[in-house]
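Hi R.,

Here are the chain sequences for the assembly we discussed:
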Amino acid sequence: DVKVTQSSRYLVKRTGEKVFLECVQDMDHENMFWYRQDPGLGLRLIYFSYDVKMKEKGDIPEGYSVSREKKERFSLILESASTNQTSMYLCASSRLGTRFEKLFFGSGTQLSVL
Amino acid sequence: TQLLEQSPQFLSIQEGENLTVYCNSSSVFSSLQWYRQEPGEGPVLLVTVVTGGEVKKLKRLTFQFGDARKDSSLHITAAQPGDTGLYLCAGAPRGGSQGNLIFGKGTKLSVKP
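And here is the predicted structure of the full complex:
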């Protein structure tokens, strides 16, 4: 079974800190995604990547950057964390197909910025 | 901006009851997926529907894609406490890229024993 592993389940950071969220998948998937999930707002796409070193902005990229140096690893970076970035962050991966493929999600990282 | 409206937002029912969750849009989708998310976990895919009018069954869950591919429903028969969770629909717009999956805001289902 595909496994998407996020490095932390819970994270508490201070305003202004640089935050790294790491995600690793073990099924050689081309696509990787970062979403944030907030009550009443659903899942919103931050960034996605369809290949190593390639990235595309999602719906809410402001305040975030990403890095994909290896196929299996996709990192989300908060350059200077702010309280409005307190949220559940979900990483996902999928194969590159002709139509939208199944997303495999990690268990999420609940980030609190104080 | 394409939107997927899910209703109801919350649903609390007794074990054994039937329920239907709706996912509606004014836009056409090439496919639609339903996910279930349990507390503390990421969403897990239940089904993908692709053809207008398609009906798929997964044990007590029945999924339907509208004829015009703008809406979908999830019907659960004789709900069990294990069905408790957040149900999300997600649509792939026609001609969209791999990153263009649009999620509804979810229906939070609670099934009481």
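The mean pLDDT of chain B is 92. The CA atoms of residues 91 and 111 of chain B lie 26 Å apart.

Let me know if anything looks off.

Best,
T.
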